[in-house]
């Protein structure tokens, strides 16, 4: 299936520098794998940002970005990540990065992205992450202390909403059960 069949208007090549391939994720509603091949320079990063801006409006909110075939990246070429992350989170989705080579992971670490984004070693691990789903925990009062459903670490939340476990990065949705007055 071509990229334009999955997302109309999507361009898959930035000269000979960077190629992007799209694939739907079986068993993950609204899921897509975006695979990069090549170099992500400043200019390629700007082009990539324009292409990835089409992902969420096309109905995809569970996004895997696969860097296995990325040979080089600059920090200036990574601005698209924060933009895409904001779009995905606004619609209740999530973004997972996979296949980071040591030199690419180093750039991510220097920028603080490794603390902010969910990072998995492989696309399959990212798919499993999405299939496990975000835990929804209903509480009767705030602040509250709950166990992370993924790693069992104790978590303290002061407000309801979408959160992440700081240890395993699993998404946790805290829902405050409000009582109705009679």
In short:
The chain is an alpha/beta fold. It has six helices and eleven strands.
Note down, in words, how this protein is organized.
With 182 residues, this protein is α/β, with parallel strands linked by helices. The protein folds into two domains: 3-132, STAS domain (Transcription Regulator spoIIAA, 2-Layer Sandwich), CATH 3.30.750; 135-176, no CATH class. Helix content is 28%, strand content 34%. It is built from six helices and eleven strands. The protein has helices at 3-6, 42-52, 79-90, 102-111, 113-116, 123-132, and strands at 13-14, 18-24, 31-40, 62-73, 94-98, 118-120, 135-139, 144-147, 154-157, 161-164, 171-176. The strands form three sheets. Strands 1-2-3-4-5-6 form a six-stranded mixed beta sheet. It has a three-stranded mixed beta sheet with strand order 7-11-10, with no helix packed on it. Strand 8 (144-147) and strand 9 (154-157) form a beta hairpin. Helix 2 packs parallel to helix 3 (79-90). The longest helix has 12 residues, at 79-90. The radius of gyration is 18 Å and the shape is globular. The model has no long low-confidence stretch (mean pLDDT 87).
Low-pLDDT runs of 5+ residues are none
**Overall mean pLDDT:** 87
Q: Output the number of helix runs.
A: 6
CATH architecture of the largest domain: 2-Layer Sandwich
Largest sheet: 6 strands, mixed
C-alpha-based Rg, rounded? 18 Å
Q: Pairing-aware structural class of the strands and helices?
A: alpha/beta
Principal-axes geometry comes out as: globular
Fourth-tier CATH superfamily name of the largest domain: STAS domain
- Beta content comes to 25-35%
Text of the CATH class of the largest domain: Alpha Beta
Would you report the number of β strands? Answer: 11
């Amino acid at each position: 299936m071509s990229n334009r069949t999955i997302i109309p208007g999507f361009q898959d090549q930035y000269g000979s520098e960077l190629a992007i391939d799209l694939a739907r994720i079986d068993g993950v509603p609204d899921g897509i794998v975006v695979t990069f091949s090549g170099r992500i320079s400043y200019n390629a990063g700007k082009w990539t940002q324009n292409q990835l801006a089409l992902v969420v409006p096309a109905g995809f909110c569970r996004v895997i970005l696969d860097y296995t075939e990325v040979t080089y990246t600059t920090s200036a070429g990574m601005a698209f990540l924060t933009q895409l992350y904001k779009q995905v989170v606004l619609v209740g989705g999530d973004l997972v990065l996979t296949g980071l080579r040591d030199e690419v992971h180093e750039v991510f670490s220097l920028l603080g992205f490794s603390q902010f984004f969910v990072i998995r070693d492989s696309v399959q691990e990212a798919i499993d992450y999405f299939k496990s789903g975000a835990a929804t925990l209903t509480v009767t009062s705030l602040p509250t202390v709950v166990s992370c459903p993924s790693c069992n670490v104790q978590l303290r939340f002061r407000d309801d909403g979408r959160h992440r476990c700081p240890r395993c990065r699993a998404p946790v949705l805290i829902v405050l059960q409000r009582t109705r007055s009679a």
